[in-house]
Amino acid sequence: MASSLVQFSNSLADAVEFVGAAVIAVPEGGREGVSGTLWRDGIAVTAAHTIRGQDEVTVVLPTGEKSKAKVAGLDHGTDVAVLKLAQQTSSASLADESQSRVGEIVLSVGRRGSDGLAATYGVIGAIGGPWRSWQGARVDRWLRLDLNPFTGFSGGPIANARGEVLGIAISGPRRSVMTIPVSTVEGVVNQVLQHGRVARGYLGIGVQPVAFPDATRKSLSISGDRGLLVVMIAPGSPAESSGLLLGDIIVTIEGSPVHGVRSLQPALDTENVGRSITLEIVRGGQMLKLPVMVGEKQES
Amino acid sequence: MSTAVNPSTTAGIIIGNAVGAVAEWLRQITVRVSGSHNAKGSGVIWRAEGLIVTNAHVADSESHEIELTDGRRVQGWLVARDRKRDIAALAVSSIGLPAASLRSRRTLRTGEMVIAIGNPWDGVRAVSTGIVHHAVGNASLLIADIRLAPGNSGGPLADAEGNVIGINSMVVDGLGCAITSDAVESFLTQAHLAEAV
Fold first, then answer.
1. Catalytic-labelled residue, pool B86, B128, B159, B182
2. pTM (2 decimals)?
């Protein structure tokens, strides 16, 4: 009876088993333990917020074996942590997440200590372009999932129906599942392995959005609708050394008009750390170009 | 009105039809249980000789009205109940009923498809589908990623072939919990109901 359904059922279970061979448990993570994904030989990723403050964690490998893993680095921006394992491991098959389609079946797979795999399934509800995490990190693609979260899913993979990894599952607001896609995780893993961290830019300013009167906007040919009024400059900050002053109003950043506070985020991306960016500011009723060196944010 | 055929949806249609076929079979073995204290739920015909299994929280009295698939209403007498494990067995006088074919959780794999039938709210023997969420070990509970409603209590959770793997009993964190068929069998053995009624 219904052999097509049995085939479908078996193929889902096969996909879980296939990707499950690269899913580890991180029992110390979070309140009740989280999951992790074997990303490369001897390298795993998990959810950064669940292992904050730890240099080493115990993991349970797909073989059931317990092992110590060093925390190679955390990226709070994407919530991805990189773990170095003491031994060689298998690793997940990574999919090209740009080939994903709305409606595709996806699986969220986790490992419960030595108790085996757990999974939920759903579909990709929507796909969007790059987005910013609430900590400001740029994430390459937005995969909105219609999928139930479950205890301990964080850090485990989101896989397609072939068991190939599309990204890492991270808990989002209101019991939702967010995906950090493969390309973004790759970037974090590379950065952490090379530099021990993911550098995030730092200017050292506090700003408040302000609207210009029409007359000012016309007379100074300001294209955006808003500016960012500098209300704080941290002592010794890159902003201070570049000569930015309280009361300056930022109107463009690297030539792009400012729309709000979030317009600053691209300037703080990893690739800008140590580089000079050009701000256009209004000071004393005049437009002025000011180069500012982007420093590196120190994680507290 | 002409009907268009979109060939790229064929696999989905086949799966949908297959779910319908399994559901049709499961409806045969699913009954509606109404107790005297207004508890309502579902039950599974476990043995053709008239043994029905449901949750203890559904079988809250000595006598229950059982509605079979064909609309017949019969009396179901409580013969065994374990409130801790939330299982109850009811006896009906009908014989030759279609009965569940069982499957042990020991052979289940995480990710396998599951199908539930129940009487959620006013829906009559409504079907829902999901996957096995967690099935390792010998626990008497099985967790499924499936949407269940209160009236699913006591109804069957089955695999892709329609074999009953458990009795739906509660929802925890949005996931469905079922008492495994193995746990039901051991309950029946302890109640000396394993052979026949």
1. B86
2. 0.87
